[in-house]
């Protein structure tokens, strides 16, 4: 926009209003471009640091031990599948089955109990609400190492040591703090009008939770479910403590089994077998994340805009 200013006895002059703005706009655009280049470059480096070890691990599964020792970063000269059969013969299939048995019960129960507790703490006001909430949150800061000794003796006195039932209960207690913390914040973002309308229609608290609130919180529930699956799938310390004693070898979980394969090799490490076992253990989690990627992202960003 140009404003023409005339003075008596002087020729007309034109003054450009806000003539300095283009320079400021150009500077802001250049700063934004530099920031984008830096952020995208950082993410690219981070992705390379995560993806390259996985590719190296997967390629090592198709090599022989001699090829891995000769050149770990080389492409397989011949694609050998013997390592996967050896890993399966060492009990990877049984370890998979044991892990699935535990998680079939631990993950649904964690989500059921965690979502119910988070819903009550987020939507209802009663005496002790904040105390109970912070009690759950404090579990996030409690080191797992400090609980291993007392946990062992508690399960031993209850007769649950070396049983899947004891491990399921431990997994639930281990996963509840983060589940309640995440879902409580998510339930707070849901509109109160729909819940009030259901109350006016005569819906009970149970019906409001299962038929109204849980479908509305679907993205958050899917996100935290995936986090619990990955966390419990990769857990090592808790199974070592709980699945111990007589007959523990027949109940080992996947992480314990992979460690057993590594230790049993002794000084002659069977790297290809170990890489194949690790690849088989990682692959299910990659598939699960790839399938539910959009739901996870939607659940993480749902609370950003209310």
Question: Explain this structure to me?
Answer:
With 306 residues, the chain is mainly α. 74% of the residues lie in helices and 3% in strands. It is built from 13 helices and two strands. A two-stranded antiparallel sheet has the order 1-2. β1 and β2 form a beta hairpin. α3 crosses α9, α4 crosses α6 and α7 packs antiparallel against α8. The longest helix is centred in the middle third of the chain and has 42 residues.
Structure described in brief:
The chain has 13 helices and 2 strands; from the N terminus they run ββααααααααααααα. With 306 residues, it is mostly helical.
User: Class by helix and strand content?
Assistant: mainly alpha
**Are there runs of 5+ residues with pLDDT below 50, and where?**
12-18
Q: What is the string of SSEs from the N terminus onward?
A: EEHHHHHHHHHHHHH
Provide the helix percentage: over 70%
Rg of Cα set: 28 Å
Number of helices: 13
Strand coverage percent = under 5%
Q: Tell me how many strands there are.
A: 2
- Our measurement of the CA-to-CA distance between the termini, rounded to an integer number of angstroms, reads 38 Å
Mean pLDDT score: 80
| Strand adjacency order, main sheet | 1-2
**What is the overall silhouette?**
globular
Major β-sheet profile: 2 strands, antiparallel
